[in-house]
Amino acid sequence: MPAPTAPSAKPELTAHPLADIFPLMEGADFDALVKDIEDNWLREPIALYEDKILDGRNRYRAVVKAKLQHKLKEENFRTYPGPDPLAFVISANVLRRHLNESQRALVAARIVTTKLGDNQHKNGSISTDKAAKMLSVSEATVKTAKEVVEKAAPEIKEKVLKGELRLGAAKDIIDKPKDQQLAELERVREQRKAEQEKKRKVRLAAKTTSKANQAMTDLDDFKKKWASFNEMQRKGFVVTFMDELAKIIEDERKQRAMIGDGGSVNLATQIATH
User: Fold this and answer.
1) Reading across the β-sheet that carries 46-49, which strands appear in turn?
2) Which stretches of the chain are assigned E, i.e. beta strand?
3) For residue 1, what are the CA distances in angstroms to 50, 51, 78, 82, 95?
4) Can you give the pTM of this predicted structure?
5) Is the distance from CB of 4 to CB of 48 less than 8 angstroms?
6) Selection from 76, 26, 35, 80 nearest residue 54 by Cα
7) 60-75 as b/e, with b when 16 or more CB fall inside 10 Å?
8) Is the pLDDT confidence value at 258 over 90?
9) Mind listing the pLDDT tens digit for each residue in 67-84?
């Protein structure tokens, strides 16, 4: 293959299908890449194969986003010379990017189910087992991912590929018609949110009950200790906490006066529910 030429001669470079097996960088990560290229330019060349970008799609997109195409030179490109472009793409992306298990499994499933083009695999597909090993996931997980690839709506697959949705959550909704899957996903999320809120309230109620029970236990323990005090100990306690006790007693009297003796609130109950 002839040496690559700078994009001044090729105004638009496109990605190789093998590169498109992996998701594009987006959001804050892509913005950071654009800023880095503006400040430091390209740190490594863009790899081409069959006149398309095999590795470096995001770097090239960042150059275009920064409007720096005029700076691209021949030394910013290299032609992939090896015998296995698929293995090269997988190695470059898995080592460089932090993909979760669901993303890697979906990539493996895409390798199994997608025509790989003009390379050493064109006369035979990649097996599920081999794809699983390539992406460091289990064969069972890749089989689940294949179901998602085959049955899920494009928006659902995109969410898994971007790391926004776990494979298990996607599998739970793919039996629905494709035009209903997004709505079903939202329904499931709202249901889980409601269940989590219910559990939170139960935990809070249990914590409140436990606190009240502990307060009553502490009060009973204090009563036993008080009963065992001699006159000097009781006097010492009262002198130590005189101001606080006086305020509590005054507040109790006022409250009893407001609600009447028949409906008075026991001080111990107030302490337990405080």
Assistant:
1) 52-55, 46-49, 77-79
2) 46-49, 52-55, 77-79
3) 8, 9, 11, 12, 27
4) 0.60
5) yes
6) 80
7) bbbbeebeeeeebeee
8) no
9) 999 999 999 999 999 899
